[in-house]
Amino acid sequence: MLKNAAIIKKLTLEQKAALMSGQGEWKSYAVNNQVPAMFLSDGPLGLRKQSGAGDHLGLNGSEPATCFPSSATLANSWNLEVVEDVGQALGKEAQALDVHQVLGPGLNIKRNPLGGRNFEYYSEDPYLAGKLAGRVIRGIQANGTIATPKHFAVNSQETRRMASNSVVDERTLREIYLTNFEIAIQEGNPKSIMTSYNEVNGTYTNESHHLLQDILRQEFGFDGYVVTDWGGDNDHIAGIKNGSNLVMPGLKQPGAREVIAAVQEGRLDEAVLDQRVDELLNVVLSSNATKKNDAIKVDWDHQHQVAYQAALKSIVLLKNEADVLPLTQETRVALIGDFAANPRYQGAGSSLVNTKNLETLKDTAQAHGVTLAGYAQGYKRVGQSDPALIAEAKDLAIKSDVVVLNVGLNEVSESEGMDRKDMTMPANQVELIQELSQLDQKLVVVLSAGSPVEMPWLDRVDAVVHGYLGGEAGAGAMWEVLTGAYNPSGRLAETYPMSYADVPFGEEFPAHRRNSYYKESLFVGYRYYDKAQKAVRFPFGFGLSYTSFTYDNLSVNDQGVEVKVTNSGQVAGTETVQLYIGKAETNILRPAKELKGFAQVSLAPGESQQVKISFDDKTFRYFDVSSDTWQVEAGTYQIMIGKNVNDIILTADYQVEGQEVMAVQDEVFAKYQACDLQSISQNDFENYFNLEFKQNTMVKGQNLGYNDTLAEMINAKSWIARAVAKWLKNAIAKSEAKGKPDLNLLFNYNMPFRAMGKMTGGLIDQDMVTAILRIVNGHFWSGSSRLIKGYFRNQKRNKADTWYEEDK
């Protein structure tokens, strides 16, 4: 039953076809007097509205906006109210800037610490990621702005992101990579969702009936509309058939012609097209696109304060030897490090914000009562160490009581479009730490990075405070923590391994060929390190405080758990109580423990409070592949209350009714159950989970197809194509050497040929893509002839499509 049947009945086939893709970089298609256009804008960390020439990579200028802490930062707050406040601020700002839909939050699982967009995602844990995303969505949509959780689903790497196949077993798909979306959708009720670029088990997510219909709509109850990532459409007709509603940035006339022809030829039922149009209209007609917001103004001071509170409550104290922190007003501080004057406060790519009101540690020190002995740059942002800068830093350090050294990852290390090469920090920064640690002064390291780094220098410093990417107000928030005006309450939302060598199957990430094999199965992040009993630098959920907390009186009933928490220290503080569930005696693969709840409590010195954490439908379940349903294994479960996954304070056994599961024991099961992942072979993985996807060939002289990337032209038959691929690779290397990755080059390098017909606004159609492939595959003259003829034919057709209305 169509909710908008009266409107749809008035639309022509051409108009319905045109509504299935955008009319430009940021606007959906409009039908005059019937369907308004929506303006969509990037926004996981702050709005990036481009009023002029638009692009999806953050290359062109955008309107000034509040830069909030990155999602990776916000996750460390473990604070649902804080993230909802950020969502509300985003929604209000969007309304004032006539943005109808915010493209966020991003909530993919951090499968590997080298993932290029990890700074945009919340956690390695689906429960925490889902809870946080659900509240951000609620906040964004509080005033009618549309939220767009992304990228659905199993999007774990930037390399080959538009031509990558995530090969993952069904139970892991459900429990790890979809539970986050399930919670976010059920608790946030988003009006849109964005599909990911990649395939999952051989099917592009944007045309997966299993993902978009069986799971998203039927199981999760999603009632909004589905939009592609920019250029993420593979087969336009297959997408419409299986549940995709809107292709962005827009296929224009060629895309509409595809739909029209499919209907006329009987390849697409018009009733299915009407259903997709109806799902889209349900959202468009209830959105702010139908309203005028001329009188709405942005309260920039309020927005900055929201950003400040979010940064403040997300800072994590990782080390505090001999209580060197907090600083006192009498302490003479040597402020060292380029980040103190030119902060790393956000990532790069589509989330890049034109910051309205950026603070720096150098400029805000005095306002926070800090006595500076001076400032020294210490290191260059990119390049080799500079002996003169190191000498200047050491000279300043010896004139101080405490050195506050600002280091972390530079811009070239974290960006959309590329994965990190390793977990190390820039070598010139590490050298500076070593030089300063040899002095007598106390050394406090302030970290700025959106994902984990190796810390071989940790024993050489007295304190480490991690601000992640704190947004525009992160500097002021950092001084509040360093001086003790605020007692740090952040807790890590991801594991910090000792080194990258400890990451399971780390040598296979990112996959440089089509298939990315998720051999670790359920054992992602702490689920692996905890089960394998492998030492880590900092465990999931870790964070120190300037006070101490004690737990006692744990009780468990059918509704949940209750525990008494006491502030046993000398200053007020906030504790995050974490609930983990395990089952030692089990007949199925299980992590040793999994996060299933958390709660925060703020206490004065000596104060106690009863903290309750409720059970829910996610607490004891597992996905039973044989029945394709969620089940509960009967038996005794371990209820664990801790300060982090490695610091469990109280435990209790709890009997749960459920399904008796038959033991299935074999050699591969034993390897997984022991978390001996190093011994899992490709054959083990494929045979155990019945997943066999042959890797694509990469040999010189091969024929390339629509879903091969431009990078693979290095093996093309055409010498021209090989030269272009080589030029792209060299140009990318040069941009990285300058410290600023060229996102346009990165996008093109990893782009499949099909995207040429998806990203050019109707200038190139699929017939022209076929001609380009013919050139690449060694048929220059015939391919060039077809390309030229195709260009003029496409232009002629576009002009003849007078029903297509532009620029409304």
From TrEMBL:
- Give all residue intervals belonging to the Fibronectin type III-like domain: 575-645
Pfam families, per database record? Fn3-like, Glyco_hydro_3, Glyco_hydro_3_C
Note the superkingdom of the native organism. Bacteria
Keywords from UniProt, A to Z, are: Hydrolase
Similarity field? Belongs to the glycosyl hydrolase 3 family.
Q: This chain belongs to which protein, by name?
A: Glucocerebrosidase
Report a single Gene Ontology molecular function.
beta-glucosidase activity
